[in-house]
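Minimal example, chain plus nicotinamide-adenine-dinucleotide.
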Amino acid sequence: MAVIAFVGLGQMGRPMSLNLMKGGHTLQVFDVDRTAVDVLAQAGAKGCASPAEAARGAEFLITMLPNGDLVQDVLFGDQGATTTLASSALVIDMSTIHPLQTDQLIARMAKIGIEMMDVPVGRTSDHAVTGSLLLLAGGTELQIERAKPVLMLMGNELVNAGGPGMGIRVKIVNNYMSIALNALSAEAATLCEALGLDFDVALTVMKGTPANKGHFTTTWPGKVLKGDLSPAFMVDHAHKDIGLALDVANRLHTTLPMGAAAREIYNQARAKGRGRQDWTAVLEHLRDASGLRTPTGIR
Ligand code: NAD
């Protein structure tokens, strides 16, 4: 059983560290909120007065903090963990932070000879309580192998994201999609209501279409991902149809800002001569606009 330093005992960190203790590990914990430390201390952890104190003698240091600057502070501040952390220790940042800051922190730790990996989590604090988080592991194969027994006390599913810094990258991509889709879904539901259409009817229809299933696994594999842009459904027609929705919404004083942005993407694709290509060609259009010239890396 290992000595684990845990910093950041909030909604997520508190139940995660409790689960590590249940798993038989010795916890040395720190949080700027003294009450949070006391709760863990009462459950059997060693309450510490600084990251440095928590990190002393630890085999793993886990951080679960609100942002990257705080992670940096906990590692490199005055009373930071690196002032005491053994070079054989493994740092695991489980916070959701800026991916480029993750890269910087990993590089900075490497300079002082300490390994660091990123393992942000999916799901919610309820899953943190039940030890059923989705673990998005960035790190080398060896690091993941080493951390796995500890990680699996906090989660029930581990995804090897493909290397250092890739855990936070997959987390950001996943959240981008989920968060944007939430707003787009709200637009569709609002349009439905403004049109006086029964939402259950719309839901029944959308259940069987890319509207609800998404495009990655429905329209893309047979077309753009195969390099086939011959039209099953044309960019021109997609542009017309989204225009119909936007026009009727406008007349009903309904606001669809994401739809307006989407129409502009189809508009640009048409301007680049893609009007008669398959609507999945918007992927190629955005890749072009982003300077990605190699064949798509998505399969
Ligand atoms: P939280 O605000 O509940 O907890 C953060 C904790 O960090 C607090 O206890 C705070 O006192 C402590 N803290 C702040 N600065 C500190 C410092 N310098 N030193 C030590 N402790 C410090 O937040 P949370 O919901 O536990 O989220 C933590 C991270 O997990 C975030 O990056 C969040 O995006 C991510 N996350 C949260 C959820 C969720 O459902 N809550 C899900 C997935 C990922």
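The mean pLDDT is 97. The radius of gyration is 24 Å.
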